[in-house]
Amino acid sequence: MKVFKRPLITFVIVLTITISVTINGYTRKEVPEVSPKNRVREILTSVMKIQNDPDLQGHVNRYKRALKIKKIIRQNFDSYGMAKKSIEEYWRTIPRNKKTKFSEVFSDLFQDSYTRLVLNFLKREHIEYLGEQIKDGKAIVKTAIVRSNDRILVDYYLKQVKGKWIIEDVSIDGVSIVGNYSSIFKREIARNSFDSLLKKMVIQQKAIKMKLVENKKV
Predict the structure, then answer these.
(1) Rounded to whole angstroms, what are the CA distances from 23 to 48, 74, 90, 93, 114?
(2) Does residue 122 contact residue 47 with C-beta atoms inside 8 Å?
(3) Alpha-carbon gap, residue 13 to 17, rounded angstroms
(4) Which of 22, 45, 108, 199 is 20 to 30 A removed from 16 (C-alpha atoms)?
């Protein structure tokens, strides 16, 4: 496996390796009200507003920030499509009820992992919007997270859904989040089975829910 020096990339890899990755049934096509670039800008601005809210600062408010950020992720990511793409070559052979279960679990794990990524790495950073490419209802928005001693390239892949641009993948310095899940999931299926993969994901999902209950009590 490729070794990444930057902590943000390492964090993404670790999250996917531990099988920590909404299920929304989107249908197409209406003309989006805003451009893909402006859509990404809106999402990131909303997230950073939560991160910098004076009333939500400190570790004691991390749970509240996480809930708000998770809601934004749920509303703006096509987790069903991401789940399907992560095991695309096996998708047709999986029974419908297990597809549904896999997508639901994937949704919970992805929301949790991406929320933690945002909480840990996106707060006061300057974001450059480098441009957008649009073709056949798909778009790529190129951005860069700029820090005093670093510049991280982040590409957002979007598709048109009901007059809205929805994110279907994120690439951080060339590392695709969906691609990482796909590699790990396929390896588990090849070594064991799809049922084995789903079982491990369900265990992780239960652990996350237990942790949420504990954090809520704090």
Answers:
(1) 24, 8, 19, 20, 15
(2) yes
(3) 6
(4) 45
